[in-house]
Amino acid sequence: MLTDSQLSQIRAIVGAENVHGGPAELIAYSYDGTFEQHPPDVAVTPASTEEVAAVMRFAYQEEIPVVTRGAGTNLSGGTIPLTGGIVLALTRMNRIIEIDHVNTCAVVEAGVVNGEFQARVESEGLFYPPDPSSLAQSTLGGNVACCAGGPRCLKYGVTKDYVLGMTVVLSSGEVLEWGGKLFKNVTGYNLAQLFIGSEGTLGVVTRIILRLLPLPRVRNTAVAFFPRLDDAAAAVVGVMGAGILPATLEIMDQATINVVEQYVRIGLPTDVEALLLLEQDGNDQDAVDREVARMVEVCRKHGASDVRMAKDAAERNELWRARRSISGALGRYRPSKLGEDIVVPRGQIPAVVRRIREIGQEFGLAIPVFGHAGDGNLHPNILFDFRVPGELERVQGAAAAIFRAAIALGGTLTGEHGVGSLKKEFLEEAVGPLAVQIMRDIKAALDPKGLLNQGKMFPSGSGPAMEDFLTALPTLQGITPG
Amino acid sequence: MLTDSQLSQIRAIVGAENVHGGPAELIAYSYDGTFEQHPPDVAVTPASTEEVAAVMRFAYQEEIPVVTRGAGTNLSGGTIPLTGGIVLALTRMNRIIEIDHVNTCAVVEAGVVNGEFQARVESEGLFYPPDPSSLAQSTLGGNVACCAGGPRCLKYGVTKDYVLGMTVVLSSGEVLEWGGKLFKNVTGYNLAQLFIGSEGTLGVVTRIILRLLPLPRVRNTAVAFFPRLDDAAAAVVGVMGAGILPATLEIMDQATINVVEQYVRIGLPTDVEALLLLEQDGNDQDAVDREVARMVEVCRKHGASDVRMAKDAAERNELWRARRSISGALGRYRPSKLGEDIVVPRGQIPAVVRRIREIGQEFGLAIPVFGHAGDGNLHPNILFDFRVPGELERVQGAAAAIFRAAIALGGTLTGEHGVGSLKKEFLEEAVGPLAVQIMRDIKAALDPKGLLNQGKMFPSGSGPAMEDFLTALPTLQGITPG
Asked: How close B431 gets to chain A, by Cα (Å)?
């Protein structure tokens, strides 16, 4: 608990209207896209890097834990203030400071919403590829903290490939400026890459310089249905083997197709084991159409039973409907879901999807799988009802089994969601004790008092992380899961 | 100096034939692509990660400095054993372990030569974009240590964008395995990105997993000549503004054009202030040709006096001749050169080129400028004769003035060569004292005894780095500068 004196000092920094300590406000800042929940002592909405720095200097002096937060859409428990303290919500820092056409980059504050940023740069003929599913809500600062990806990232790369510079407030309150409007930079260690994906454990990113691309003028899309999962996976390899790097190469397994079809009724064949959504973009309609036709040909050759290629934008939108409907469909099927985020070598997709099917049967849970097939980044979604006694324990067991299946196949825990609190007990299994020790050393160097995002990423040694779910349950009563 | 006992223990690890201590061998391992020179006490050529680890464990125990080295082509003094000790030359570790078509990646040892790797993957229909000018000699391990770039990096990114995993021997001799055949990975901090560009100061990278792309099937090239430098720079911006991301967008200034033309006599107009070399690649010849034609149109619109577009591969090679001849031409013009590597925001290219022209006049030195215009990454080459008394001091002054000009324009010291010893005294000016302190903390965490690549990257506080040139001079007598 913060003292009245501490609270009034924080009010003096950011203004009383930006210090939020009422019961409703503390609940609002207590959860993210998972089931964990813990209120902060206070939530603070600073307006500038200078205010963030002043809050951090004060927190450092008083040894108050701090959790930075954007829109709180994350799926790892990463923004939950597990030990209370201050939540620094950067949502007011939402200015697009500059779109620079000469240097094809943008300067933004951390609280800018990804989708709003995309719309703005596209309206100016520019392109920012990273497109997490949360883009309508999630912030660019949060995207940096998690190294967000999305369907376009096979061809275009993830958030880390677009950060040219950043302003970071360290736990001490010191302000680090790194990089610039510079497309190449090897002047010393690449500190920006250390903060990207560090989930708010090393510093508070307040301002970002993002590389932009020219906006591709045209695109085209196809969907291919495969009676056999192995054939779909072989087609993914076949597309790349045909010399094509598609803008999108998404997969949905049979369980996902069925759940989506029950929801949207768009005539998806429910007897196929997988579908692939393929897209190409570029500047030349004929060339793009030819590449999509070539991908369709590869799919047919690899056993696709049906292939649909869009003839215009309306048909393209229709083909995307199934992919876009997944989240809503899953929510309708069961009231709760745990969206996982494993990565495997692309060639191991059939093996891991089959293993997940077995795990679902073993634990008596529906686990539809979809994701970024080109990247080997899959989202097994464990569907359940947290009100049913015993179900959450089975979810816990299934999630652990999925993590271990991915690791056993040469994969890892997370491709774009982060470790947060939910996967932290598996970190050492995934990266080994030496890597964890190096990460701890880096954390100690940058956050010597250990104030930033306590209880995240690093294993507590207290056993499987899903226990956190169970302890969080009582406070969840009465709140609808996200 | 190592003791006989120490040397015999190293021989026991790698075999006597791989421990090199003769006078000629010590000279061979005493220099790189700069003018600095200092012999090691011994050079060791290990055959495996295990042998590297055993050597490092021994060096750690005995507190012997270690400098890792690939082909020694670097242009920053980065591989010179300034404090003696062991040079670990990884040139025997030159196996391409695997080209994996299913997962479009390769597993290589650090000593594989970039150009040999490129030829191999291209023969299998795959593509590894980073193409430093040293590619015929430089190793992929060295490329990782410096985060090498090249002309293709505007469109395709630099070395850091291709590393999926690595094996690193730490200074303690412990072996870190990071990543895998995984296109996305946010499981903990991105340690690979910390080692990339760290110039051998944090660990010894012995094995790398590199992402590959499908090989673009076609390409086309054009050259445009501009009477006015500003117009060439505006054309660079205009090409991107026309929605095109070219595979190559190189610039040569008037001084470079003149030096090249005097050497190769291919009819370059010597009265123009700049030329641009433009290339596009893709899978569709018509689409690629249309984009190159569009770039040509942009150049004409921006004041190009002459534009040549290749009609076939022979013409394409002819257009590249000027670019490829630069290094030889500069060597013929004056016996010595210092190749710099500044980066500025793309829009500042005219300002920095003009400032470099002034600096050349001020110090009485020819400084042709060429480089990667799309990236804002320029290579001012200071031409001189180190045997002429006083000339090296002027080079020192000119280099410092160039660094400061780049920093003043929002740029930095190095885009792809690294800091090494030559630029270390300017590190703090470029990144600020806080960034240097964080870098020192990271260095201390990973190399607590400070054994790896001593005297590199970090400022000594002893003044301008070029002093090193002067102290190196006596040993240089009789050795032809590279």
From this structure: 7
Which residues of chain A does B174 touch, with a Cβ-Cβ cutoff of 8 Å? 434
Distance in angstroms (rounded) separating the CA atoms of residues A253 and B40: 59
- CB spacing of A435 vs B198 below 8 angstroms: no
CB contact set of A92 (below 8 Å; sequence gap of 6+):
A18, A45, A46, A47, A111
Instruction: ipTM value, please give it.
Output: 0.95
Indicate yes or no: CB of B415 within 8 angstroms of CB of A184: yes
Rounded distance between C-alpha atoms, residue A236 and residue A249, angstroms: 7
- Sheet with B163-169, edge to edge strand ranges: B96-100, B105-109, B204-211, B163-169, B175-179
Rounded Cα–Cα distance for residues B97 and B49 (Å): 13
For B88, list phi and psi in degrees, rounded to 5. Answer: -95, 100
CA distance B251 to B235: 11
Q: What is the Cα–Cα distance from A449 to A296, expressed in whole angstroms? A: 56
- Contact (CB, 8 A) for A438 and B171: no
CA dihedral B73, B78, B80, B86 (to 10 degrees): -110
Percent of chain A with pLDDT over 90: 88
Give CA–CA dist A72/A79, Å, rounded: 6
Mean pLDDT, chain A, as a whole number? 94
Calpha distance A179→B413 (Å, rounded): 11
d(CA A450, CA A430): 23
Two tokens, residue A148: 């967000």
**CA–CA dist A197, B186 (Å, integer):** 6
Beta strands per DSSP E along A34-101 = 42-44, 66-69, 86-89, 96-100
| Among chain B residues, CA nearest to A201 | B189
Interatomic CA distance for residues A465 and A418, integer angstroms = 14
Beta-carbon separation of B215 and A183 below 8 A: no
Q: How many CB pairs under 8 A join A and B?
A: 279
CB atoms within 10 A of CB A355: 20
Q: Which residues of A64-73 are buried (b: 16+ CB within 10 A; e: fewer)?
A: bbbbbbbbbb
| CA–CA separation, A457 and A443 (whole Å) | 11
Specify the pTM: 0.95
Q: What is the largest CA-CA distance in chain A?
A: 71
Enumerate domains of chain B plus CATH numbers: 4-89 (3.30.43.10), 96-214 (3.30.465.10), 218-328 (3.30.70.2190), 330-475 (3.30.70.2740)
Mutate to test the interface with B, among A189, A236, A439 (most CBs of B within 10 A): A189
Q: Is pLDDT above 70 for B356?
A: yes
User: Nearest to residue B206, comparing CAs of B94, B67, B42?
Assistant: B94
Yes or no, beta carbons of B190 and A197 under 8 Å apart: yes
Q: pLDDT tens, A137-190?
A: 999 999 999 999 999 999 999 999 999 999 999 999 999 999 999 999 999 999
How far A276 CA lies from chain B's nearest CA (Å)? 17
- Continuous segment of H or E residues that includes residue A49: helix A49-62
Taking the CA of residue B368 and the nearest CA in chain A, the distance in Å comes to: 21
The span from the CA of B457 to the CA of A98, in Å, is: 33
CA atoms within 13 A on the CB side of A187: 35
Q: How far apart are the first and last CA of chain B?
A: 28
pLDDT tens-place string over residues A22-79: 999 999 999 999 888 999 999 999 999 999 999 999 999 999 999 999 999 999 999 9
Confidence of residue A1 (pLDDT cuts 50, 70, 90): confident
Q: What percent of chain B has pLDDT over 70?
A: 96
Would you state the structure tokens that stand for residue A196, as one six-digit string? 């990207």
Cβ of A415 within 8 Å of Cβ of B182? The answer is yes
The span from the CA of B435 to the CA of A170, in Å, is 11
